[in-house]
Amino acid sequence: EPEVTQTPSHQVTQMGQEVILRCVPISNHLYFYWYRQILGQKVEFLVSFYNNEISEKSEIFDDQFSVERPDGSNFTLKIRSTKLEDSAMYFCASRPGTSFDNEQFFGPGTRLTVL
Amino acid sequence: GENVEQHPSTLSVQEGDSAVIKCTYSDSASNYFPWYKQELGKGPQLIIDIRSNVGEKKDQRIAVTLNKTAKHFSLHITETQPEDSAVYFCAATFSGSARQLTFGSGTQLTVLP
């Protein structure tokens, strides 16, 4: 069964460093998402991406964040200058994109630890 | 924007008993309500969903009910088993948007053998 994959599973970085989190969505899906989950808290929407551009973003998704689909398969989240409060699980999700397909398929997540 | 409240935050039941988790939402435009199960160290997995044109949906031991007027929806798990132990999240979205999900705060369900 096709699934969303994410790498790395765990990323440790120093405050102020740039990190890139990688995702491979399900191949025929058209909508892509990043969510984050701070330990013990709810899953929060960051950004959605469709047709090679951002379609929606939350107030969390400020100028230090960016997303890219550099080729036909990868979908990346870049954090330019990490802060301690960026420590969280980051989940990528994808959706087919047809009118009736609402289900979002989530990857296993990347645990980001900022020291 | 949408706000989803979820209760209870923790729930312990004996194996074989039923479990009920409740959520309320604020945006009357929301029309799709999925429930996700998250096991330790894994991403959320969809277990059941409901659209606003339906009041109830059932899949084996799992059912979801929706009351649009009151803006609340509930997850019902019958004949619980130890493998049902996990964190359950409700969510809401509006199909006219990019369909980003607004999640509830989660319920840690523990099924005691």
Your description of this structure?
The complex is a heterodimer of chains A (115) and B (113). Chain A is mainly β and 115 residues long. Chain A has strands at 5-7, 10-13, 19-24, 31-37, 43-50, 53-57, 65-68, 75-79, 88-95, 105-106, 110-114. Chain A has no helices and 11 strands. The N and C termini of chain A lie far apart (37 Å). The model of chain A has no long low-confidence stretch (mean pLDDT 93). In chain B, 34% of the residues are buried. In chain B, a hairpin with a 6-residue loop joins β4 and β5. Helices cover 0% and strands 54% of the residues of chain B. The A-B interface holds A 4, 31, 33, 35, 41-45, 48, 50, 55-56, 58, 91, 93, 95, 99, 102-109 and B 32, 34, 36, 41-46, 49, 51, 89, 91, 93, 95, 97-106.
Keywords:
heterodimer, A: 115 residues, mainly beta, seven-stranded mixed sheet, four-stranded antiparallel sheet, 0% helix, B: 113 residues, six-stranded mixed sheet, five-stranded antiparallel sheet, 54% strand, globular
Largest sheet of chain B: 6 strands, mixed
Share of helical residues of chain B: under 10%
The total count of helices of chain A amounts to 0
Number of strands of chain B: 11
Give the helices and strands of chain A as they follow along the chain. Answer: EEEEEEEEEEE
What low-confidence regions of chain B span 5 or more consecutive residues with pLDDT below 50? Answer: none
* Percent of residues in beta strands of chain B: over 45%
**Overall mean confidence score, pLDDT of chain A:** 93
Count of β-strands of chain A: 11
First-to-last CA distance of chain B? 41 Å
Give the termini distance of chain A in whole angstroms. Answer: 37 Å
What does the main sheet of chain A amount to? 7 strands, mixed
Total of helices of chain B: 0
Shape by Cα distribution of chain B: globular
Strand content of chain A: over 45%
Report low-confidence residues of chain A grouped into runs of 5 or more. Answer: none
The percent range for helix content of chain A is under 10%
Oligomerization state: heterodimer
